[in-house]
């Protein structure tokens, strides 16, 4: 083993954060943690990890649950496609297969997640390259724009022969998560500082891949019926969840005519999706239909924000109680 590898492992043994999935060997629990961490920060992921496993402690429990139940438990964690895929995976396999090759390609498992589960749960010698590892290796070896394949080959070649591959992968990821930070890496405190080729000019490694997507304008229509809000089943990335009508601004008059209402503005919300940034104008209207209690349905984060914007109206019309609304920081109209 090289000196920098020993330095990294020694640092990891002493400094690894105590996380609920640290030391875990159950492949299903590792999978849940990895899927959550794909798009959720560690501190935010912990309560969802606990909640999810309390309700679905095994793959079998997940298999036997309805998708709606799963989405309800996932509610708030965002990126619901992950929960849909976990549920699909549970229908597909009795147990998680013990190899990278078989794991890769199961619903929601790309090369990174498959490698993480294979190495941590099954001890397979396969490198797990996430954004943190990409950044650490790019800086360590001064690579400006390493291609995915090259980076994977590099990481694979760096796996030390006599160390548990799961521990090694986690050590690299941990360094990227707490020391080799994207904006302000803590080079003076880094165990690899003496070996790092990019530390003096870390901003160049790796170069950013994409420019920020332009903001897209949409409208959301909160229709207040006799018993609550009109909700629709959402499609696409929000499949299985519910929400109010969301559409491009030019469709407003057609939508109003379809529901027989005239709407008024309630405010704006901003929301970022994986490759899109949304600016949503929230509009409200009193509507002669029935509607329902929106908090009883699984909602994507975007729709929670939209409904929160409409809370003064909902409270005013008695759809939610004023104390409930005030708990969300809403002042009476
Ligand atoms: S020395 Fe700095 S840039 Fe290099 S790996 Fe450590 S934290 Fe990252």
From TrEMBL:
HhH-GPD domain mapped to chain residues: 36-178
Q: Which domain of life is it from?
A: Bacteria
Q: Which PROSITE patterns match?
A: ENDONUCLEASE_III_1
Q: Which Pfam family, any one, appears in the UniProt record?
A: HHH
The family database entries (InterPro entries) matched by this protein are listed as:
DNA_glycosylase, Endonuclease3_FeS-loop_motif, Endouclease-III_FeS-bd_BS, HhH-GPD_domain, HhH_base_excis_C, HhH_motif, MIG/MutY
**Record's keyword annotation contains Cytoplasm:** no
The enzyme's E.C. designation: 3.2.2.31
Keyword DNA repair (UniProt): yes
User: Record's PANTHER family?
Assistant: ADENINE DNA GLYCOSYLASE (PTHR42944:SF1)
- Give the similarity note: Belongs to the Nth/MutY family.
Q: What is this protein called?
A: Adenine DNA glycosylase
**Organism lineage string:** Bacteria, Thermotogati, Deinococcota, Deinococci, Thermales
